[in-house]
Amino acid sequence: MTQDLPHTTATLATDLRNLGLTGGDVVLVHSAVAAIGFVAGHVQAVAEALLTVLGPHGTLIVPTHTPNNTDPATWERPPVPETWWPVIREQSPGFDPQRTPSRWMGALSETIRTWPGTLRSTHPETSFAAIGPLAATITADHPLHDGLGDRSPLGALYRADGKVLLLGCDHANNTSLHLAECRQPDPPAEPHGAAVRNPDGTSTWHTWTSPVADETDFDDIGRAYEKTGPVTTGRVGNATTRLMPQRALVDFATTWITQNRTT
């Protein structure tokens, strides 16, 4: 069905305010921009709408993960020949917060990643980018072994009592649920590897161990949370959108995983 008029920065800002987003909020946004419909100015207008609503005291966060900068031995989409693995590990240029694009994170995340004033965390696999007064706090501490845990930007968002916005996507994309995984008493762990760019332009391959990231039941967790937890659902443009407090979501998911998952 053709929409009557194009969506604009102003109309999207109105939709976001009606959903409950407000000036000064700290919000992690997951998005599928295509779901919004035709927007005058496309993804730039979407970014402008979010930043307009948040205002000078709000902070916008997006995932800027790089799943292509991981150990090729684990790749499935698609796999690569084993003879390629040493070359990839040794010759990849290495993650650099300013140079390395994200992958599979969507057009909005890439737009915010390169927006003037944006800061990005240094994790070579699961980085986040942020713009606003709390951007430095959100992105400053991101150790290799805690890519999605309490010392990651997800943990910083939790401490800031921030929000999660699912713009045209569902809980399968809700990265904050990984924080709940990491908070399990003894979460299953797995090895990781990634290339990191050195100041002189060379690259070093790093390895570490961290909790397994498993999204297979995230939609189940999200549906269960929505039955009892605070969440507002509405439309931003044509996109079904959910806004929720991250702390309540993570607390619920931490208990849900403990009670419903088997190791």
From TrEMBL:
Mention one GO biological process in which this protein takes part, according to its record. Answer: response to antibiotic
Entry keyword Protease: no
Compositional bias, Polar residues, is annotated for 200-210
Catalyses which reaction(s): a 2-deoxystreptamine antibiotic + acetyl-CoA = an N(3)-acetyl-2-deoxystreptamine antibiotic + CoA + H(+)
Signal peptide segment: none
- Keywords linked to the UniProt accession: Acyltransferase, Antibiotic resistance, Transferase
GO MF annotations for this entry? aminoglycoside 3-N-acetyltransferase activity
> What domain of life does the native source organism fall in?
Bacteria
User: What's the EC number here?
Assistant: 2.3.1.-
Report residue spans for region: Disordered.
188-210
**InterPro entries in alphabetical order:** Amioglycoside_AcTrfase, Antibiotic_NAT-like
**Family assignment from sequence similarity:** Belongs to the antibiotic N-acetyltransferase family.
This chain's protein is named Aminoglycoside N(3)-acetyltransferase
User: What species was this sequence derived from?
Assistant: Actinoplanes derwentensis
